[in-house]
Amino acid sequence: MSAPLDPETPGIQAGEAPGTQVGADHASQGAGAPAGGAAEWRRLDPRTLLVHCGWLAAPLGSLALTALATGGRIPAKAWFTLAALAASFAVVTTIGLIRWARTEFRIAPGSRGDGSEGGAAGSGRGSAALTFDVRSGLLTRRLRSVPLHRIRTVDLTASPLHRLLGVTVLRAGTAGSGDGSKELSLEALAVPEAERLRAELLAYADAEAATNDPVVARINWRWLRYAPLTFWVIGGVFVVAGSAYRVLDGIGIEPWKLGFVQQAFTELGAGALWLTVPAVLLAVLALGSVGAVVLYVENWWNYCLEWTDARTLRVRRGLFTTRAVTLERARLRGVLLREPLLLRAGGGAMVRAVAGGLGNREENRKRSGLLPPAPRTEALRVAGGTLRAPFPGSGAPVALAPHPRVALRRRRVRGLLFAVLPGTAVLAGLGAAFTPVLLHCAWIYAVLTTALVWWLARDAYRNLGHGVDGPYLVARSGTFSRDTLALQREAIAAWTFTTSPFTRRAGLVALTAAVAAGEDGYRIPDLAATEAAGFAAAAAPGILEEFLVHPGEPGQHLPEQRSS
Amino acid sequence: MPEHATALLRPPRHRVDPRARRWWTLQALLTLSGPMLLLALTMAVLSLLFFPGALPWLGPLLLVVLVVPAVSYLVVMPRWRYAVHAWELGERAVYAAGGWFWQKRRIAPLSRVQTVDTVRGPLQRRYGLATVTVTTASTAGDIKIAGLSDADAEELSRRIGEAAQDVPGDAA
């Protein structure tokens, strides 16, 4: 922020100072605050005011660039811009200040009719129930109050600007509040404060009720922000281009023969490559994002996941093609939480059902989707609602057993062999044969990909984990898509131990659980060979006990002693 | 279950029929090694007839790329396979080991067994061998025991059928 340019700056600083002691003095000065005992009205974070100034960055930046370009002399026109900026800054800051000063929230025991709507909503719930109250507005005061046991989701969202200032937006939603208008939102809170509030809100949320709601999830269009984080950001380009081509082809136009298309191509080739290549990449990304969003909307329009009765889970979705998939509870064998790399970086996840009778592998992939890319907390909640039990790791994180360290080395070696080595060898070979420029490309490629491989290998290794959580086998693996599987232990139909000379030397084994559902086989890679059989026996008793040997005990068959 | 903490999976008790080695050798000859050797021979002969000058570099190349891999596959694979392949019918589960480079050990409980198929291919018939496939509801749970002698296969499929009836289960 280039705030010093402006006369209003002292106001901000004055507003920021009490931010550290937001507690008592503000709580008492809120207009007509009831004596809430422990339930004091709390304020938003003063840094919110700075967030509202975020829009200033672009004009001020361009002004600074102008000043830089003209050598420090600011032209007369720019002064007008500056004045306009200052005026709008004053207005925005005032509005922000009022909003900040008049928005308060608290967690209070019941509602005592101190607000028009809140009193009505709260009084029916009994006095013991805690409510989450938010009041706001300068002239029209508005109090919204939600009983804590009704709150199903608490979502923390931070834009880059929020993150820079260390604040985040908190949204609390109830079971049916998919469209967002019924949500309570607080913009913005300091991150630790928001985390604390989330814990407070969810501590009272009735976990039992959350898993017994007939409606598990509805579409929330705020999730659209996750659409560009999917594969479709690239695939979307092909989809858009493909459908455009098909339409043109259908009406008898061959796009490659159009004059302006050819002209565009020749101009692109003639232009400065360092400019056109990033521009084209940017255009592809933008087009891909649009494609991804369009596909998201088409696929998940009107999405609703609900238990139609005690034994049937139904997914409805789709704009032009409507899809409805019904899953029988007896055939629902588990849930898969998928977090592809990009989506994971954005804090999102998808949920898939592991269910039998959904058709062959491809049909299963199409039909098993239970939740589109959505915030991770939402995904965990939906996974829990599908299992009708908290998804492992959503409450207290289930301690997944890590895999042997040699698995990390294997991942590194694999990356070096399949990513670094071939590219470097080809570049170096070509470089030696033709031009030394390629030799430089070769070593740069080698250094960059090695760093990338190291990072990905570490991530892949950290993601590896397995364990048993109540009636579920839990296994997590993958870096390009981190998949967390919760599989009913009693559904496991067979065990497979797979080894290669490399894994045998490293003392590892891959364990595959066969189930008559989903992908049929779910693989847990790179377990310690000494632990795999014990884990399999513990996870699904009654399958392989009779084939186990305990090396410590005497009188066992050694592997060599077998009759032929 | 703490007693499983250091448990190891032992190999299945029974090896497959020794004639399986010859079957696998013949299979290798027909599918991979034979064509590779034939290709090497053809190229060597053609080169000898028309481009004798190419032999000094083509010969070693053929040797390394075609002849050596083909022969080593022919020699190594059946022995290795024979050392690995094994089966066992336990009280509650079927257990089979297979593969050679990539090895697989699979255990399926008898309560999940759906069908038992015995297949004799034309090559297998020549050596009096059979393959028994035990299917479950999951394709990742199907157990295949290749290279059993006819008598063993018959006995095994009969016993699995009986055992599967004795062990209660819904096979789902």
TrEMBL record, chain A:
The chain crosses the membrane at residues 49-72, 78-98, 226-248, 268-297, 413-431, 437-457. Pfam families: bPH_2 (PF03703). The keyword ATP-binding does not apply. The keyword Protein biosynthesis does not apply. InterPro entries: UCP026631, YdbS-like_PH. Residues 133-200, 461-535 form the YdbS-like PH domain. Keywords: Membrane, Transmembrane, Transmembrane helix. Residues 1-37 are annotated as: Disordered. This is YdbS-like PH domain-containing protein.
UniProtKB/TrEMBL annotation, chain B:
Keywords: Membrane, Transmembrane, Transmembrane helix. Residues 85-159 form the YdbS-like PH domain. The chain crosses the membrane at residues 23-51, 57-76. Signal peptide: none annotated. This is PH domain-containing protein. It comes from Streptomyces sioyaensis. The lineage of its organism: Bacteria, Bacillati, Actinomycetota, Actinomycetes, Kitasatosporales.
